[in-house]
Amino acid sequence: MEYTTPKPRELIAIIEPDGGYALDWQYVNKDVEEYCAKFQQNIYDMYLADRDMALLMLGAAKKNVVLPETVEYLFKVASAFVKCLSRNPDLEALREKAKGLPEDKEQDELLAEAPFINGAEYLDRHWITCAWDKLNKIFSKEMKKHQGTVAEYFISKNPDIHFAGKVYFHLVESKKEDYPFALLATYAAEPSAVGKARHLPLKNALMEYGQNSKKLLELLSTVNKAAGQSQFISGLVETGEIFYPIGLYPDEAYTFLKEVPLYESAGVLCRIPNWWRKKAESLKMSVSIGEKAASFVGLDALVDFNVHLSLGGEKITVEELNKLVSESEGLAFIKGKWVEVDPIKLRETLAAYEHAKREAERGELTMMEAMRMQLSAEKLLNIKDNICEVEVSNGEWLETILAQLKSPDNIKAVGCGANFNATLREYQQKGLGWLYTMKELGLGACLADDMGLGKTIQVIALLNSIRMKKEERVLLVVPASLISNWTSEIARFAPMLKHYVIHPQESRIVTEADDSSGGVYITTYGMLLRLEWIKQTEWDIIVLDEAQAIKNAGTKQSKTVKQLKARSRIALTGTPVENRLSDLWSIFDFLNKGLLGSAKEFTEFSKKLKENSEGYAKLKQMISPFIMRRLKTDKSIIADLPEKIEMKTYSTLSKRQAALYSSMVDELQRKLETTEGIERKGLVLAALTKFKQICNHPDQYLGQHTYAENESGKYQRLREICETIYEKRERVIVFTQFKEITEPIAAFLKDVFQHEGLVLHGETPVAKRKDIVARFQGHEYVPFMVLSIKAGGVGLNLTAANHVIHFDRWWNPAVENQATDRAFRIGQRKNVLVHKFITKGTVEEKIDRMIEEKIKITSEIMPDMNERWITEMDSRQLMDLFRLTV
């Protein structure tokens, strides 16, 4: 199957541990400007050649295009490094010895501005420090090769980069009543004997260089450049005052402060008071929500809120603000602090404050509106853009509630209920407590644990726990291929939990929910479109598995799901949002409708994030109480996990598979009656191979070449697992014992991943295998490799993959483990997740059960276990083994 697409594509960035990153392409439903596409291609080509060098070049690039937000974030990190270098007045002297060192404040700002991005769990100060360390090393390497100046090197990449000269402007507050501010120009003199630069008053340069010195002109070049753009600085240069400390009136200081960006672009470094750098905080309306306990908890609960004004971090009364309004624009000294005064903004702020105060006195703010204030306080309070900053904080009661939800350590433990046949891990026990609490509070919950951490068992524990009080009516909506997984897990872990299947694949289909009793009703997204009674039923709980199925809000499927009626809602997904905010909105539109506003409102908010990425921090803060996301990389989780997580993945036969399988059973039964001895053993082994082939795909058994997805339950299950792997940009190796199906599986996965993969089997030339492994382990995203278990079971190092899928079973645990260890070995930095495919009701499930019991009895895996033991069974045992039981 060839994968071709006319759709445009754009880059996506993935964060990796210790300052690392990766780039990949994703297809998009929008036009990508030709220049933008070329710019991104250039970045990607550099990345493949040397990813550290690519990051440096990205930071130095002249960017005339809007980059995808995750790549834009890498640009911010790298350009901050380049800017740090450019602000070093000794850069030219230090050259390869120069280092960019991020300040704490800068790191915090970069972290706060991070978008939703794959690998966000690695983003912290350590990551930024490591990333800058890599940039320092590649910069040093480049400078050792470069013959010209450092400025020439960077300006050849981007002429808009401004390099600092050696002159500094210092504005400080003065105690003199007539001149409350003082301005001093200094310069960085040659380093002293101990190697530290000395900052001297600019007048010293007159004595050091002389008035006509070429060096003096060079030193003052940045000042002259600033003077060419500023009348204020031009006047100081012409009179010679620039060389001496001078006092400034408030209006002169205000002119200077407003022109700081102009001076810095000319290469003059400015040291100014912190209160001006933080002038966005100078005028602020503070809103506190939920100080007192509400009568009940839920998004409809009414909560109190109050507002007050502050200027320069100090509370200010309406009377004091009115007095400031009468003053002219500039700087004013109030409550021991200098603040910026803009009469027009002050008047508009007063009007907005009066409106907000009236709203507060009405006391009719719902908890949902209160939480939405975190994102759009200006809109809810009818405040025009850029009038003032609105700071929203939670009162004591609301903060206690939300802190409890954000930190499940503080939630009271909940029992799993009677007859629950499993012991939850510590993090799963916390997940159960969190889900139970969310239900009790009437809040929609998204359990977004990483694949392999046990979302299913946590939900089953929740439902079994609830059953002890009252058997509620639960609707569980899953992809069709997961019905078997859920029924098997419920029967295994909570056998007393009643469950019904609403799907044609069951012989006894449920046609309505019994009003008198509860239970778990399992159905599929497709069945919701066909059965009106499901939408009309009042459910106690609705659980969506693989909730990314509703990420596209415009589909009929998503709209139908959101018509369901329930008192409590839970969404399960391994990828709540990685790179598309619209996915997040759609899932929350189901869980807590209105919390993120309408689709139009959220789209407008998302657009503003490109202009002001601080909004990402607000959005994360707002949704965090409703999402529980634990990752296999979390330090608190790793200690509670085995390094290799094995899980059985069930699929069901398609109609065509079931027909072929049943026919094969009848044929085997007839032949067993007339064969014996060696011929009988050969017949059984041959039949075993044919049954495996049918379970894989009918076309493998029939020797055909179409391999339609809907004709194989394993193909459908493979897609669902690999779509999650692709969302996270992880890698997988797929093992099969049949060479003939390696290429069809690879063709199918090429469509799933929208990327080429690799194939390795017994006929792959030995000389080519090294290149195949090197490519899979390289920087380019090669998402999958399909291997025959004999060819790939030994001698390969495939640690780039952290997923292993056994598409069909060898039924020799030692051989399977040996194959798994291609990924799980020295050099692997992630937990390896092993999926063992089993087709429900077939010989695959029965033999797996027999092997599991055999291992339990012997307490060890027998290395010589193979399929020949099956041939020793009598005919009745064989037919019980092969007969289809669903």
From TrEMBL:
GO terms for molecular function: ATP binding; hydrolase activity; protein serine/threonine kinase activity. Residues 436-594 form the Helicase ATP-binding domain. Residues 717-870 form the Helicase C-terminal domain. Keywords: Hydrolase, Kinase, Serine/threonine-protein kinase, Transferase. CDD domains: DEXQc_arch_SWI2_SNF2, SF2_C_SNF. Pfam families: DUF3670, Helicase_C, SNF2-rel_dom. It comes from the Bacteria. Signal peptide: none annotated. This is Non-specific serine/threonine protein kinase.
